[in-house]
Each structure stands twice: as C-alpha cells, then as structure tokens.
Amino acid sequence: MNPPIIIGALALIVAVCHEASWWKRRHWKRLPGRVVDVIKQTRRNKTSYHPVITYSSEKGDRQFTSKYGGNTHPKIGDAVVVMVSPDGESEEHYSISNRWFISGIAFCIGIVLLGKGIIEL
C-alpha cells in the first residue's frame, strides 16, 4: 500500500464530488442577497462565522444561514450572490471561494500526492 497514492486518490474524489454538486446547480438562478446577521459556530475549539442571508424571490422574501463559514466575520449589510433552485426550495450562498476553494485545494493535493506516490513506486 502506498499512502500518498491512496490519499491523493481520495483528494481527487473529493474534488470531483464537489464539482459534481456545483455542476448540478448550473441551472439555478443567481439573485442578489444581503447579509443580515452572522451565526457564530464553535466546533473542536475552532470558531467559524456563517452569514444569515436574505433575498427576494418569486416566492417572496426568504432568509437562510449559509452552510459555508469562515474564520472572518462577514459584515452585516454586505451584498452577496444567492443561487436558487428552479423550484425555489433550495438556496446556496455563492462566492468564488465557496465555488472553487474546496475543489482547487483537493485537486492540487490529489495531483501532488499521486505524483509523489507514483515516483516512489
């Protein structure tokens, strides 16, 4: 067993799964939203801040808490982009970091570790 190959392959699987989840959202509408509050979550002694976002849709004004959080405190009143499913029942906070960070990091780690594992064979 070659650990770099195994971990590299798992990282690439994570990247592909993350991309697939965003690919499924390609037909979702992009609407303007605004941060109205911030929820502080602490897990394993690490704090993250999740924006509470409001936006207007065909079904009226809606509000949700983003599942994407970070170690920086979003500013109340900040403009954001919200992606809304065609049926209007699901929404997602869209940003460049939410969209590309997980895929990009997982892909890079996967390629590096696979390369290292192949060289060590």
From TrEMBL:
The keyword Transmembrane helix applies. Keywords: Membrane, Transmembrane, Transmembrane helix. The chain crosses the membrane at residues 6-23, 100-119. The keyword Transmembrane helix applies. This is DUF3592 domain-containing protein.
